C-alpha cells in the first residue's frame, strides 16, 4: 500500500459544517486539498466564502469545478422554485425539502474520489450531519457507508491494492451548536463563512431559510455571537 494516509480531499462549500470539517482534517495532521463546486446554485456567494476559508487554512490546493446542475433543476437552489421560509426552526417543513439538489452529494463525492485517486489520497472528508440538518437523504450514515463501499470497488488503485479510501464524516452525529464550539476551538472564523440559501444581491443572509434558521439556532445554543450579516 502507498503511504497515502496523510493526504485528504475535503469538500468545502464555505458554510459552517464544511469549514469545521476542514479545520478537523488539518488538526488531524492531513495535507488538505479543498474541492468546491459552482453548480449554478442561487447562493453562488458561497464560492467566495469557500475561497476565504481555504486561504485561511492554507490548503495545499483549492479546486473549484463548474457543474451544470442548473440544467437538470429539480431544486429550489438550482431552478426557479421559491426557497421555503419560516419564522423559526419549529415551523420548518417536515420531510425532504425542495432545497434538496438531486444526487448532489453523490456527484460531489464522485469528483472528490476521482481527485483523491489522482493524488493518492486515501481520505475524503465531507461535513454531512444527521442531527441539525434539513432532512437530505444523502447526509445519512448508511449512505456514506454505501458510498465508501462503492468507492473501494470502483477505482483502479483499490483494485490494484495500493490504496483504500475512507470517507470521513466527523460531524455526522454532532448538533450545530457542538459543531460551532468545535470550530471555534480550532480557530474557524465563522464570520467568513456563508450559509444562506437565498441571500440578497449584497450577500446578506435572509434569516428565514432552513439553513439560516439552523445556523442561528446553533450559535444561540452554543452561547456564541452570530457573526452573520442578515437583511433585517
Automatic annotation (TrEMBL):
Keywords linked to the UniProt accession: ATP-binding, Ligase, Metal-binding, Nucleotide-binding, Queuosine biosynthesis, Zinc
Top-level taxonomic group: Bacteria
GO-annotated biological processes: tRNA queuosine(34) biosynthetic process
Annotated catalysed reactions: 7-carboxy-7-carbaguanine + NH4(+) + 2 ATP = 7-cyano-7-carbaguanine + 2 AMP + 2 diphosphate + 2 H(+)
EC numbers, comma separated: 6.3.4.20
Cofactor: Zn(2+)
Binding-site residues, Zn(2+): 196, 206, 209, 212
HAMAP family per the UniProt record, alphabetical: QueC
Similarity comment: Belongs to the QueC family.
Function: Catalyzes the ATP-dependent conversion of 7-carboxy-7-deazaguanine (CDG) to 7-cyano-7-deazaguanine (preQ(0)).
UniProt name for this protein: 7-cyano-7-deazaguanine synthase
Amino acid at each position: 500500500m502507498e503511504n497515502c494516509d496523510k493526504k485528504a480531499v475535503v469538500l468545502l462549500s464555505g458554510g459552517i459544517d464544511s469549514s469545521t470539517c476542514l479545520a478537523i482534517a488539518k488538526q488531524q495532521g492531513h495535507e488538505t486539498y479543498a474541492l468546491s463546486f459552482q453548480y449554478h446554485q442561487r447562493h453562488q456567494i458561497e464560492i467566495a466564502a469557500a475561497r476565504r476559508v481555504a486561504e485561511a487554512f492554507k490548503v495545499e490546493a483549492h479546486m473549484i469545478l463548474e457543474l451544470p446542475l442548473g440544467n437538470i433543476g429539480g431544486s429550489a437552489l438550482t431552478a426557479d422554485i421559491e426557497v421555503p421560509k419560516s419564522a423559526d426552526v419549529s415551523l420548518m417543513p417536515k420531510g425532504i425539502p425542495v432545497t434538496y439538489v438531486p444526487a448532489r452529494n453523490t456527484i460531489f463525492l464522485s469528483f472528490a474520489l476521482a481527485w483523491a485517486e489522482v493524488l493518492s489520497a486515501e481520505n475524503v472528508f465531507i461535513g454531512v450531519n444527521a442531527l441539525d440538518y434539513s432532512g437530505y437523504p444523502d447526509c445519512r450514515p448508511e449512505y456514506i457507508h454505501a458510498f465508501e463501499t462503492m468507492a473501494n470497488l470502483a477505482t483502479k488503485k483499490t483494485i490494484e491494492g495500493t490504496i483504500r479510501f475512507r470517507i470521513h464524516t466527523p460531524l455526522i452525529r454532532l448538533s450545530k451548536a457542538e459543531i460551532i464550539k468545535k470550530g471555534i476551538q480550532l480557530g474557524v472564523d465563522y464570520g467568513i463563512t456563508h450559509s444562506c440559501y437565498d441571500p440578497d444581491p449584497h450577500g446578506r443572509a435572509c434569516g428565514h431559510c432552513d439553513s439560516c434558521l439552523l445556523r442561528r439556532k446553533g450559535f444561540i445554543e452554543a452561547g456564541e455571537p452570530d457573526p452573520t450579516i442578515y437583511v433585517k
